[in-house]
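user: can you give me the structure for this one chain? tokens are fine.
assistant: on it. calling the predictor now.
[tool input]
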Amino acid sequence: MAKLGRWMALAAVAGGVAAGLPARAALEDDGRSLEASPDATVVTADKLTFDYIKKFALFEGRVQVNDPRLQLSSDRLTIVFTEDGGAQTIKAEGKVLLTQGDKKARSDVAVYDVPTGKIVLSGGPPQVMQGRNILEGEVITFWRDQQKLECMPRARLVVYSEDFGDADSFFKPGAK
């Protein structure tokens, strides 16, 4: 329950701030900003509902997630927790935009199954873009740890060959 306890502590801090208590006293961080940590994930939204009993957090309205690995924006974000307090699933809904470096993905819904590393984009239709290259389909599925992607049905890929350098040299005799 340590992880879920941490979420409860954050909810208590938020409640204390809403009640007019100074956040510095609630956090006891010696004046250091918790957001300054390079591995901090910051989620902002118009509204947060946290249910300790049902083990979920619901962020609604102008949701922004800034994580060292990626950025996400959506209308709504739901996190369902495991019994020990880790994240089980994360579901973003409404104008979902994921950004990671020069890669972007957009869809109506994105569901991330944390234990398996599976990310499913649907609705919109979903698009994945890297530079000018675009992948579209009705459902795009990624497996985070397997460097694997599946797009179906109606997969459509637009690739600009100049973005890959001299791709023809790969097929020339003697090329390695």
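assistant: here you go. The chain has a mean pLDDT of 80. The chain has two domains: 1-30, 41-171.
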